[in-house]
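Recap for those who missed Tuesday's class. We walked through two folding examples back to back. For each one, the amino acid string is listed first and its predicted structure tokens come directly after. Nothing is annotated here on purpose, so try labeling regions yourself before you check the end of the notes.
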Amino acid sequence: MKRTVAAMAVGSALIAGHVCVDLVPALPAVPRTRPGELVEVGALAVRPGGCVANTGGELAALGAPVQAAGEAGSDELGSLLVRLLSSRGVDTGQLRRRPGRSTSYSLVLEPPGIDRSFWHHVGANAECDGTAFELTGVELLHVGYPSLLPAMTADGGEPLVALFARARAAGITTSLDLAVVDPASPAARLDWSALLRRVLPLVDVLSPSVADVRTTFRGPAPGPDELLDMGVAVLMLTSGPDGLELRTGSAARLGRAGAVLAGREAAWAGRRHFLVPPRVPVQTTVGAGDAATAGLLYGLLAGLGPAESLELAAPTGAARVSGTAGRSPL
């Protein structure tokens, strides 16, 4: 597969939306504190986080030209975020620094053997509505975590619709990833079913986790066939160690999927693939789904077929889990 990828030109991608700094203290157990008590923790890992960093960084590590687009603050954390993204080979020219605003960050609590949880500050992400994104020269636009971008989902999701409509008009292949919606968050009050039924006809690639879908829709969560019926051309559903499922729409729908899939309808239409990722030691689960998305998008950009793209998505996600992310599995 390495020879196949190397023979193909790789298109450029704009990875946009939620971006933050992840602060990850090493924890031997879940801290339980009382007022005035000192609890010892381990060393602090500082990483770029959110969809822009996770998917964009892994896509750059695989060899694709990647630009990041989003909002950061004018504070020191924003300067650190730019340095961290740049060090991963991501072009940060479209990462705007907002005067007087704070940069988004997450405190990631991930003790051994326990699923991670987050304390999150939305920061400048609250102002990200997509209107400033420059799409010239881009072949693929990927937007991540709209539930954490309140300006993008305002007015029933009109800014998100407008962004994808602008990309569609420019012949750009479009991609969307979701995030788990906290039932206590303001995002849970949105009518996501109505919003996504407006957006998904403009989305060529959708790559959520099963948990993302389950928490986003009110009532019974739609299955793969229903999500395809909502208008997407390529669907990848991830469910951690249980596997990745790839479904694709009709040749007619693939024909409207922008530059990256132009002329490849016969290879991609009506496909169904399922793959269990390789078993690896679990160091972290943060960003694993985003990394799998990067593998899928790289396959698209490099001209691979659906089965080959899924076969790249699985080890790219597994590398994130094992702590070896950034080392190309090609």
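Example two. Treat it independently of the first, because the proteins are unrelated.
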Amino acid sequence: MNVLTAPGFPERQVRARAESGQTSAFPDSEQYGLTLFGEHDAAGPHVPDAIDRMRLVPPVFVPIRLAKLIDLGREPTAGDVDLSTVIGGLRSALPVYVSAFGSTAAAGGDLGIAVARQAGRLGIPMVIGENIVPVSGYGRLKAEEQSSLLRRIVEYLGTVRDGLGGVVVQQSTEDADAEVWNLVYSDPSAGPLLASGRLAFELKVGQGAKPGVGGMTLMPRGRAAELAAQYDVMDVNGPQSDLVLRCSSPGTFSEEILRQQIRSMRNNYPRCRAWVKLPPSRDVHLAAAAAWAAGADSVTVDGAEGGTGWAPRAFLDHVGLPLAECLDRIDSQGRCLLVSGRIWEGARAVKCLALGASAVGLGRAALLAADQDLEKGLLNFVDCLALEMRLLISALGKYQVVELSPEDIWAPPSR
């Protein structure tokens, strides 16, 4: 049937929905676990966002450079920029950390292990994402070793330098049921991290790819009946498919509930740092302030560009605040704010630092870099990123990350 449509009308998408129904609300299920979702799932060129449109603006008069010159007895260079910092209580060689990614084939197995090894060598913190234990096991059994949570910890410890970096273990609703934090906290393999103050736990409230909804996992139809009492199970792919969609609760939070959960973290795991992961919600500034007030060592925020989780296209393309807006709304006042969302080069990283972030997260970029070269892809990538950051910070007449500020940014007038 031929139907006339107005120019620009999404005829292909409408026809796909008419043919496939609920299935069309999601990305291709055959790519589940093999593809990174999140940043604008639709094909086409990237559209610059507010951070891309900002410019870094060096000054003519550089008092900090002058003070550095006097201290060094020579003209400072980009090599004099000190990128070392403290991220959520963890000492890091760079204002960079590896963002959370969890259990799917796109982030597990050899790739997840490669990232762990290289992050350790770089001396930067690594966040281990949700749902690994429920899907792949903890790692005490031989069959669980390859993609397990414990394997990532052990590989990281095998390369990290003394006093640098750290492992952050995220816990979602599913992980809480599996008592993930208890497993890690009591495991002798994590002892070196605890003894050196380099273990943190992160409470996951939400993520950038799908703010407002919980974890979504495609699983075999045969398991649906046993999970139906605990999860919302949807037959979105139709009866001909062996896969069903399992949805968990996003959790119910008030300011008091968040505060109590953070206090419980600190009381139950006193030797760990307490991190909180927030989605790019409209009240993200209030949630961040509440988390810090309750004693969180760090607050992490994914912009809507961040996160690699499976979700309906409507969430990937239309839900959540952009990273620039999150940075504008949150007043960190010197407290640790970590951000992620399409961080892949030095200018975007330095802009985020100047706008109030303490460090930036590498999620999709870390996985792609490691996939390019399992031995040194992430090392090469971060080496390039660090060079760009040193050159840019030096151009601004500054030599430490904490010296960056909004004065270093020019934003075009909004139309």
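Answers for example two:
Residues 40-44 have pLDDT under 50 and may be disordered.
The radius of gyration is 22 Å.
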